[in-house]
Design goal:
alpha+beta; 4 strands; single chain; elongated; two-stranded antiparallel sheet
């Protein structure tokens, strides 16, 4: 999947939660709206997609307040001191976490900022193929990400 395709899907998910990509683009990037595909191409071509994915408006919509969202926390290995003063290695398995906090978007922005690849971090929150098939209950489920953005 290309960066443009990923960005379109991310924008589509945020749009479903109330994010107005056109308004954001005109306010932050360029006052003239070139269309959804061209706007995404401009953002990815010039490396300006970081302005979008770290935008508070985008983050608030992507991680919608009060919405339950499932995501996988990756495996981790770290060392710590136990009660006896010995250094022990902890191996955590990957697990599924559900978020419903009102300001969870702030947490995820911080995590994304320290992550090596912010786009990969965001991909963890995209619906899986099974989720998409379960939610296909109308025309909106069959629209492409660009058609959803156009509204």
């Amino acid at each position: 999947m290309t960066r443009s395709e990923t960005l379109l899907i991310l924008i589509s998910q945020a749009h479903a939660n109330g994010f107005e990509f056109r308004r954001w683009f005109q306010a932050n990037i360029h006052p003239e709206w070139p269309g959804a595909e061209q706007a995404v191409a401009l953002l990815t071509g010039e490396g300006r997609f970081y302005a979008l994915i770290f935008s508070h408006d985008f983050a608030r919509s992507f991680w919608k307040k009060g919405a339950q969202m499932n995501f996988v926390v990756p495996a981790a290995t770290y060392s710590r001191m136990n009660g006896k003063g010995e250094v022990v290695t902890i191996n955590r398995k990957p697990f599924t976490r559900r978020t419903i906090k009102a300001d969870v978007w702030k947490y995820h922005l911080r995590q994304m900022a320290i992550c090596e690849d912010p786009m990969r971090y965001l991909k963890r929150f995209l619906p899986t193929h099974e989720d998409a098939q379960m939610s296909q209950n109308g025309k909106a489920a069959n629209l492409s990400p660009v058609e959803k953005i156009r509204g």
